[in-house]
User: What shape does this take?
Amino acid sequence: MELLRPSNLAELDGGLFVHGGTEVVPLLRDGILHAETLVDIRELVPRGIDGGRIGAGTTLAELEASPHIPGALREACRLAASPQLRNMGSLGGNLLQSTRCWYWRLKYPCRLHGGDRCHAAEGEHREHAIFANDFCASAHPSDVAAALLALDARVRTSRRELGLAELYRLPDEADRRTTTLEPGEVILEVEIPPAEASIYLKAMDRKRWSFPQVGVAAARTGGATRIALAGVAPVPWLLAGPEDLDGATPLPRTAWKVEVARALVRRALTEVT
Ligand SMILES: Cc1cc2nc3c(=O)[nH]c(=O)nc-3n(C[C@H](O)[C@H](O)[C@H](O)COP(=O)(O)OP(=O)(O)OC[C@H]3O[C@@H](n4cnc5c(N)ncnc54)[C@H](O)[C@@H]3O)c2cc1C
Ligand code: SF4
Assistant: This one.
């Protein structure tokens, strides 16, 4: 395998991007990703915090220690993964991490791998989705994405600027991808408008080093409050209000997540309003 380290965007020409490698390396090792060329993009992607702008190369460890970012984002980073992973893992890589669905990770020929079945829906799915789960029932694992969605963040890539929600798409028969990023497109930075108050609450199986079973971010800006959830749908999930939880479509063994989400949303709203 060839490893390239381009020093400017114009030099990019295909290959699999790697930043911290905490996601790419295990997926290559397990034969889920394949690449002849790995492109180390650390020289291309800004790193650091400048007002509301955060370089996509900033590590989760740097974010969790920063007094200059909203509380919801700081807390989402602090509660993610382990200290070692947060030291290596970048903001951009976190937003683009793949599903933790064990059927997908074990290479079952499920719909997300291009097959015609959702093995989780028919099988073991305690940790899976409660919204938009009819085609693929995976639960988006990024705490950070939920926080940024509640904070109404925008993303700047090497080709365009978009709202965080537009970075994601629900997979369907015609297109199994869960992001809208095009081949060769690099996330450069994220911009967050100022928030008056924000919080991130996370229910997990262990107290530390665990993916969100349900993560709830709430942010108040200009009197309006946005609520976004991790771990409940194949993409980060925005609620118009707590009543949206009445429209959840849990699988037989994910109904418990609806009750956990209700409790966390209630608590988060009390904190920010
Ligand atoms: C055991 C474990 C536990 C974890 N727990 C949590 C958790 O609780 N909560 C949570 O939110 N996350 C969790 N994570 C995810 C972790 O935070 C991510 O793996 C990490 O942030 C990814 O960053 P990276 O720089 O290492 O990405 P990489 O592995 O380098 O890349 C990940 C993906 O993003 C692409 N990519 C990276 N940067 C860019 C960019 N700038 N532009 C375009 N494409 C890019 C790569 O091509 C690849 O597809 C966990 C991971 C592990 C392994
Ligand atoms: S939930 Fe999605 S990733 Fe998991 S088995 Fe079903 S189709 Fe595959």
